[in-house]
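Reposting from the mailing list since nobody answered there.

I have sequence plus structure tokens for a pair of proteins and want to know whether others read the tokens the same way I do. The first protein:
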Amino acid sequence: MATFVIAHGAWSGGWSWKKIRERLGARGHEVFTPTYTGLGERAHLARPEYGLETHVQDVLGVLEYEDLSEVILLGHSYGGMVATVAADRAPQRIRRLAYLDAFAPRDGQCLLDLVAPEERARRLALAEEGDGWRMAPSPPPPDTSAEDMAWIGPRRVPLALKSFQEPAKLTGAVDKLPRSYIYCTKARPGDVFRQFRERAHQEGWQCFDIEASHSPNVTAPDALTEILEKIAAAS
């Protein structure tokens, strides 16, 4: 059986992986879903100075204090930034690094470097329209059910802009780890994650496509669980 640690996406929290925790747990896997500082049940800790590095430390803390090893570290969306840096810092604890429709940065890149100029400008404008340091949540995928909207809507909170501006500082250790990429095929305008799917194929990562929109942990948990089982079996 495998140990999964999940680095969640922006505006979200460990709570959003409840369906996957239940399904993987029922199959005998151990699953940790830490929530970043300033989000979810830790929203009261939000500060302008907390960004990517803070969230990396949140994940590294779980790896260390739970004394985890042979971990499958999965990053979703923005969580790909977090997972990449965390894996680079603690490669001895990681069995495989996996991405779910996620950003996979190279050294020195921040998330805003990896999106189109118009998206970058939109994010900066949203922060300016608010309190100047936080971005309001993006809308959930359009295929999210009314029941799931009632669940996730009130729990999604603004994210510090610094999270998208702080660059990933990598030593190269992460490049020696086996990697997997799960690409959601129900694309949205811009389809920012296709670039990482293409890189994954070019670099020989284990690759999967899932017929789902951006958050299959919410909208397609059974299909996502099956893929995660395949990743665990191959690791």
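The second protein, same order (residues first, tokens after):
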Amino acid sequence: MRNLKDVELDGKRVLMRVDFNVPMDKQGNILDDGKMRGALPTIEYVLAHNGKLILMSHLGRPKGKRDPKYSLKGLAPHLQRLLNGAVVSFAEDCVGTEVEEKVSSMNPGEVLLLENLRFHSGEEENDADFSKQLASLGDVYINDAFGTAHRAHSSTVGVADYLPAFAGFLMEAEVNMLRSVVESPERPRMAIMGGAKVTDKLGIIENLLEKMDIILIGGGMANTFLKAQGKNVGKSLFEKDLLNEANRLLDKALQKKVRLLLPVDVVIAGEISADAVAKVVGVDEVPDDMMIVDIGPHTI
């Protein structure tokens, strides 16, 4: 990876991909700003070296359309507080004339947060024109969004075709940590996996079956594996079209003598909300009118 410290930033427009896909409540309050804090070392480094920092991120799944509930606008004042009062402005879009004007008027050491990338369908399509528009905003590109780096989108792949690209400090740390675990000969090795969708993780599970001794699958993706085993998951999210694939991975784990662990108990609720009543049950005791919202204490 090309290191951020290898590039001259003084006076440069630095276009940086961050992962500000933070959980928010219905009123737009940030419930957990951990992802924002994770990007601070790279952000602060750029500002300390007089870069003009343009931040871009997605939030949720607005499906290529502008949706106020997925706006990043409320994150700008919070980021300004995290940066101890550094100038943080917000752009009402991520491309276009108004954005270009805001970028041209920036001073070194200032931050401009762009609106949600996914308000444009070109982002997830890795559209060349959209990538060029984003790239035109910067002189240098930094990717510090490890959590989205596996997706071939304009802000993660397309922009790097048009600008010199470098890894941010968070990206470096994440990759180095992953390498140390995957490439280390020390055993036993265990991977704990979560997330909502099996689709995003199939390749990773397949790969880890060659490297791990134990794999624990939790999160929403565990529901698909539990359903594949014939268990009732009630109203829980699961991927019906991947049940056969889940069974195939379970069989392959047996062949490879890898312990692929699924939850033995779960937390269930009638809905996902702050005031929902939750309780713990065995994995064979999920009622039809309830959904799995977490792994249980015995699984933990």
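Reply #1 (J.P.):
I read it the same way you do. The CA atoms of residues 210 and 256 lie 8 Å apart.
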